[in-house]
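Subject: Re: docking follow-up (fe (iii) ion)

Dear J.,

Thanks for your patience while I sorted out the input files. As discussed at Tuesday's group meeting, I've set up the holo structure prediction with fe (iii) ion included as the bound ligand rather than trying to dock it afterwards. The sequence and the ligand SMILES I used are pasted below, so you can double-check that they match what you have on your end before we go further.
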Amino acid sequence: MAQALDYLKETPSQTAGPYVHIGLAPGAAGFDIYDRELGWDIAGLEASGERIEVEGLVFDGTGAPVKDVLLEVWQADANGIHAHPEDPRAAEVSPGFRGWGRVITNFDTGLWAFKTVKPGLVPGRSGRTQAPHLNLWIVARGINIGLNTRLYFPEDEALHASDPVLTLIEQQQRRSTLIATRTAPGRYRFDIRLQGEGETVFLDV
Amino acid sequence: MDKPAEFYQRDRDWHPPAFAPTYKTSVSRSPRQALLSLEQSSSEITGPVFGHNDFGALDNDLIKNYAKSGDPIGERIIVHGRVLDETGRPVPNTLVEIWQANASGRYRHKKDTYLAPIDPNFGGCGRTLTDAYGFYYFRTVKPGAYPWRNYVNSWRPAHIHVSVFGSSFSQRLITQMYFEGDPLIAKCPIVNTIPDPEAIDRLIAPLDMNAAIPLDCLAYKFDIVLRGRRSTLFENRLAGN
Ligand SMILES: [Fe+3]
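The structure tokens for the complex came back this morning:
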């Protein structure tokens, strides 16, 4: 017998369920409890960069919009800096910028939308650069473990050709599932398909 | 940032699979394609940082944080524990958020139509930061079991939903805490999305009489383990030489 490795096991995930709003967005559940809910303001008022708005739907495998989703966003600022002590440039992050937010869908339509600033180029591994992107995390009833994906911007097509994540996707046509559509200056549409035709590429991060 | 220290790969066989047909809602909400595995970059190893300014003084006390005319009805309990990573190191200053039904199994949510009553003094959510050693605690009332539409006679065991951040977005986790001794645990289709019985045990909080407050409330202990992280020691040496 060898020694035991003695690592702890990660706590197993469970679905966020239909009432995730109570915990993470109580105002949407229908009551007012905290002085300030978290995650409503991703970029802050003073952050530099282009102000953008993103909206979309999440579809299930039958093609119906999922109306009880909660999404979280994590992103770098306009200079590609994350507001986190381990980013080597953290001291230069835009004033007031947190880069994290959460958004829920409209219970009737399933539409979600958030405002932020467009992120800059983010350093990747081994000196490679990542195209501007938002990291998304999706939970809902029926989703047993949160789904990670990324949103890229259509105008950065030239950068996508060398992006270390997009180029990992073997099937060319599936890369487009991570690229938003521009509907107006500063406005983007990003639909997520959980299953079936056009299924979004989800990431094991 | 050339070689950021990566978090240990998630053991996807330990977690519930996306497609778990006895939990019916998962059938149409589960991706069928394989997940794309990434080497972690700055986007994955960083995550939001919260401070005490984000919170109010009663945020972790569900007995008081929505009390209008008195305390909520129900069995008074403390839920406490530590947030650790897989190497056993505490995860300090991390956000833990919980939500739950009231003592009769009813949620304060406009979409919950269960016939059990709303408790006027109970909101059902709380949040806190772990301390420097990874400890957290909440005070609340024990939630009731409630019926839900899966099979016609499906009931959820008493449970508290728990959301945790860790220091990076790749550690983000939502789970549910169950109570030791509840006979509904073994019958629950959501619990049973987890294939390994040992993994299910990790979600069942034991009664902790040492943390109970005599003549006031009982206590349950619930430790939460987030992904551990590689050391950069050798990589740094290689890069530096
Ligand atoms: Fe629940």
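A couple of observations from a first look. The helical segments of chain B are 42-45, 197-201, 233-240. Chain B touches chain A through 88 residues (CB under 8 Å).

Let me know if you'd like me to rerun anything.

Best regards,
T.
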